[in-house]
Recover the amino acids of this structure.
């Protein structure tokens, strides 16, 4: 890994290579104007292939020295780049066309846009050309690894699986740590609406953004500091992801068709014992206990390799993605519309996702009135496979494929599935094939807005938005599975609905005074309401599997179950922002939001979230006028407060619920009692953040970047605290505790070589340190439960959140060791030797210590783009260094719940024996005295990795005189080609707990290699 980082450093030095120039200098002068004839100030003018450059003055004039046959390049924010060959001409006037198809030079911020050069906050902008390419189901996957300070974790690689995003670290213990998503000005609820099945124990975390087609996205802006996020008040503490979809532009109709097909495969499986190794091991372990062997030699020879259950449930899977879009416009009206179909099979049998989507964006714009519609609708069909963190018969397909007895056949000679009563696990193939588990989610969201200009400088805008979701999940476990043998078939049907309504009223005033004072003021009022309801029903004991869950009445009436729920919460807000620009040098932004939330107590309904930021464009100062190598230098500083109110509804109130049953006059009644203590003082978490940054550019933008330092401190944590059971309850929510995150991040972009051969590089690097600062007097909190392991993370003052907590293994006891005089006097040779951390001469729970953290020391990503004529090539590396993950598959293998479960090959083929006195692996014999648990540093593994995440090769066909085609491109893409890591599990990036800060690998759906070929044609 160090060698790779060294190679990256060398690679980044290449952009500073100076290309040779002609030795016949001439001076060229002229003027640059817009298509309307207006002079353009600040346009970069440089000699192609050199560092020589200048910029136009306020009247659009420029003067530059070059060779007589040089090529001048003209570029500026918001305008199309133009190249002009001199050919002995020393006076050139250039007209630049506005870049109307993209947001070049403009950054989307809360409730508006800003010129990039005027931004005082910390904002990462990623446009469509920089997105991760290939088979991407959601916007989260598009930006993974592309922005400094933003860690994207694939919590499940299942098609449509959840993705967790941390912007500048984790802020909360019990509240949500995910950012707020805003799509075309509509803040959405990013909580998954697809219900979890209580009978398949799927545990799948679905991505709520699956409804949005990634091909419709024009840009993603990530707001990171308080200056950028305070305008969203009580929802801005975790950062804000602004998603802008594609819009039309003035011109003739463009019809674009994009079709691609993908092949997916599992790069590696977890090495387990083969059937012969497994049988030999069981015989050996029985012999050490003076028992007769279970298997004879002829049985071992006859079984061969047995059943490789992982190969039985994994497959090569195919996917297709088709997109048809229409765009164009007239002088005042433009439009964009698209249709999308995606069908992705999973690499685990019986899993996959389908999406049918459509989008319409319309915009009308004249001097007095603006009007727009952004509307997205989709149907997402999920095909689940049982998985998750359950154990024994309730364990999922991947767990059973890892630990099932390899001597059992997939099917018996009579065609029935092979099963065993010795191992408390399912036949994974039977579980996958005989479980019906599908969900269909219908989602329509969008907004309608109108803006009226009272005078050119003053406008009022009204924005109405809605997000309506409806999801139904149908589950049935067939009678051929082991878990349904006792229930004779198990069916469940659930319906969830989520509705979100938004009303916004804003007024904006912009004015420039004396050509040096630019002023913008924004005032607004917003109201947003969220409604949820659910209905669930189930039944068991069916005479046939044919009906699945389509007729629950076919089950036994005594097994019927029913449940329902409903909740609502509202936000009422007042917001304001002032932007001031003096001489295009000195920038000031002040913003504030007052949020009222129904989630909080009567005494704390409203909160105030202010911020202030300042910027200094040093490059515009006279003392840097002659420093021509410097093309941009801006200092930024900001401070502000943001909040987090994402804890669910009604946490501050007394809640009533069903409690027990009583029979009165022969009739059974369900009792009602309090199920939650009230807290009228409950309020949001508050995060204060300081940010200091610099934006820089050299050599007319050929080298540019940003550098930021930040410090975030969160107080009044929404913590679920234990309380005396004499109250009748075990926990309640209170505002106590604190946490901090600090770090720095850097992003660099270089133009290494210009045309005709072009090479561009982008690099991002982040360091973030997390620490718990206050736990309201509690010594610690233990969290984490999966499989047979519990309380494997600790929340402790002075340590990173959810650090891994357990014992340190210092090797293996050997026959010559003085075991009787050790801290484990009853151990035997071949057993693990645990560290006596507190030196008290014994191994107790007091010897547990922090073994690692889920947060990396640093993360980085580097992308290189090459182009020559019609050919293009790009490749993107991503790296994470210093994070850890708890490998529960190792703990269950080395301390199995059942003697007959399969084991990790590495731990047992090189196990300790008197003839093989290794100091690495134990003997595999269960210790007679358990001095410690299996939560130890062997299972908490280094999750650092370097991954070649994306490679794309494309060719664009030239259609200069075609009457039919405006453009066409063919491309091939490879994703996740290889990963360099010391982690022994399937993937170091996974987390079985979805968006939780507790990171563990337990039966993770495997990351896949994906190979894609496609074509993009525009008519």
């Amino acid at each position: 890994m160090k060698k790779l980082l060294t190679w990256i450093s060398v690679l980044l030095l290449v952009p500073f290579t100076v290309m040779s120039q002609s030795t016949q200098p001439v001076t060229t002068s002229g003027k640059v104007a817009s298509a309307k004839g207006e002079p353009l100030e600040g346009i970069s003018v440089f000699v192609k292939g050199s560092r020589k450059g200048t910029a136009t003055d306020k009247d659009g004039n420029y003067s530059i020295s070059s060779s007589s046959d040089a090529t001048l390049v003209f570029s500026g924010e918001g305008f199309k780049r133009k190249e002009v060959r001199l050919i002995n001409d020393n006076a050139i006037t250039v007209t630049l066309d506005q870049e109307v198809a993209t947001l070049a030079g403009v950054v989307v911020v809360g409730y508006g846009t800003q010129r990039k050069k005027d931004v005082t906050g910390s904002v990462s902008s990623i446009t469509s050309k920089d997105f991760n390419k290939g088979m991407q189901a959601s916007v989260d996957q598009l930006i993974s690894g592309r922005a400094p300070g933003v860690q994207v974790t694939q919590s499940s690689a299942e098609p449509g699986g959840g993705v967790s995003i941390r912007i500048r670290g984790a802020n909360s213990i019990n509240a949500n740590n995910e950012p707020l998503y805003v799509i075309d000005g509509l803040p959405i609820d990013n909580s998954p609406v697809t219900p979890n099945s209580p009978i398949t124990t799927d545990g799948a975390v679905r991505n709520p953004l699956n409804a949005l087609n990634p091909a419709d996205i024009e840009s993603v802006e990530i707001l990171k500091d308080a200056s950028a996020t305070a305008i969203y008040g009580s929802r801005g503490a975790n950062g804000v992801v602004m998603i802008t979809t594609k819009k039309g532009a003035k011109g003739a109709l463009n019809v674009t068709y994009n079709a691609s097909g993908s092949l997916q495969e599992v790069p590696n499986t977890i090495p387990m014992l083969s059937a012969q190794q497994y049988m030999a091991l069981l015989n050996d372990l029985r012999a050490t206990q003076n028992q007769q062997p279970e298997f004879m030699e002829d049985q071992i020879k006859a079984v061969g390799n047995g059943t490789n259950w992982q190969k039985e449930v994994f497959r090569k899977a195919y996917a297709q993605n088709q997109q048809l879009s229409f765009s164009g416009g007239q002088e005042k009206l433009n439009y964009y519309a698209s249709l999308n179909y995606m069908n992705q099979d999973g690499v685990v049998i019986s899993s996959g996702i389908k999406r049918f989507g459509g989008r319409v964006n319309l915009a009308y714009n004249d001097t007095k009135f603006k009007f727009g519609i952004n509307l997205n609708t989709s149907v997402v069909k999920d095909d689940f496979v049982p998985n998750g963190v359950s154990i024994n018969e309730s364990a999922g397909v991947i767990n059973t494929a890892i630990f099932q007895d390899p001597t059992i056949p997939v099917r018996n000679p009579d065609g029935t599935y092979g099963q065993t009563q010795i191992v408390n696990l399912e036949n994974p193939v039977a579980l996958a094939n005989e479980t019906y588990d599908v969900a269909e989610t219908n989602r329509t969201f969008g907004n309608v807005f109108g803006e009226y200009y009272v005078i050119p400088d003053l406008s009022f805008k009204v924005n109405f938005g809605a997000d309506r979701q409806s999801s139904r999940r149908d589950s049935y476990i067939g009678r051929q599975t082991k878990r349904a043998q006792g229930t004779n078939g198990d069916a469940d049907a659930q319906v969830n609905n989520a509705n979100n309504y938004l009303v916004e009223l804003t007024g904006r005033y912009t004015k420039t005074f004396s050509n040096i004072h630019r002023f913008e003021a924004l005032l607004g009022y917003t109201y947003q309401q969220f409604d949820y309801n659910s209905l669930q029903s189930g039944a068991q004991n069916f005479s046939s599997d044919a009906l699945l869950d389509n007729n629950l009445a076919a089950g036994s009436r005594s097994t019927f179950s029913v449940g329902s729920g409903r909740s609502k919460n509202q936000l009422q807000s007042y917001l304001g922002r002032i932007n001031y620009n003096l001489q295009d040098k000195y920038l000031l932004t002040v913003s504030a939001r007052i949020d009222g939330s129904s989630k909080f107590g009567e005494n704390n309904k409203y909160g105030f979230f202010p911020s202030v930021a300042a910027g200094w464009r040093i490059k515009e100062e006279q003392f840097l006028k002659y420093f021509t190598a410097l093309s941009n230098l801006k200092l930024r500083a900001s401070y502000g407060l943001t909040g987090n109110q994402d804890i669910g509804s009604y946490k501050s109130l007394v809640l009533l619920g069903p409690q027990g049953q009583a029979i009165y006059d022969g009739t059974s009644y369900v009792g009602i009692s309090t199920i939650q203590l009230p807290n009228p003082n409950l309020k949001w978490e508050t995060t204060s953040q300081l940010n200091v940054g610099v934006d820089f550019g050299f050599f007319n933008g050929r080298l540019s970047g940003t550098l930021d330092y930040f410090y975030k401190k969160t107080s009044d944590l929404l913590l679920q605290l234990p309380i005396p059971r004499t109250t009748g309850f075990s926990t309640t929510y209170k505002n106590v505790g604190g946490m901090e995150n600090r770090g720095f991040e850097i992003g660099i972009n270089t133009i290494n070589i210009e045309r005709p051969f072009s090479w561009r590089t982008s690099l991002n690097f982040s360091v973030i340190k997390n620490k718990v600062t206050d736990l309201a007097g509690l010594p610690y909190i233990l969290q984490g439960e999966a499989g047979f392991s519990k309380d494997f993370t600790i929340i402790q003052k002075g340590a990173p959140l959810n650090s891994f907590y357990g014992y340190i293994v210092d090797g293996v006891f050997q026959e010559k060791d003085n075991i009787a005089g050790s801290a484990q006097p009853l151990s035997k040779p071949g057993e693990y030797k645990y560290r006596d951390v507190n030196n008290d001469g014994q191994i107790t729970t007091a010897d547990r210590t922090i073994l690692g953290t889920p947060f990396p020391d640093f993360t980085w990503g580097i992308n290189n783009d090459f182009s020559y004529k019609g050919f293009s090539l790009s490749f993107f590396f991503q790296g994470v260094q210093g994070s850890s993950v708890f490998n529960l598959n190792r703990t269950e293998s080395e301390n199995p719940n059942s003697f007959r479960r399969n084991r990790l090959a590495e731990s047992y083929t090189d196990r300790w024996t008197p003839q093989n006195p290794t100091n690495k692996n134990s003997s595999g014999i269960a210790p007679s005295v358990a001095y410690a648990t299996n939560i130890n540093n062997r299972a908490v593994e280094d999750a650092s990795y370097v991954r070649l995440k994306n490679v794309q090769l494309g060719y664009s066909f030239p259609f200069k005189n075609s009457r039919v085609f405006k453009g066409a491109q063919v491309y091939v893409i490879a994703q996740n080609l290889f990963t360099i890591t010391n982690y022994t599990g399937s993937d170091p990036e996974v987390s079985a707990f979805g968006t939780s800060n507790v990171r563990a690998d337990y039966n993770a759906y495997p990351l896949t290699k994906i190979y894609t070929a496609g074509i993009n044609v525009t008519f």
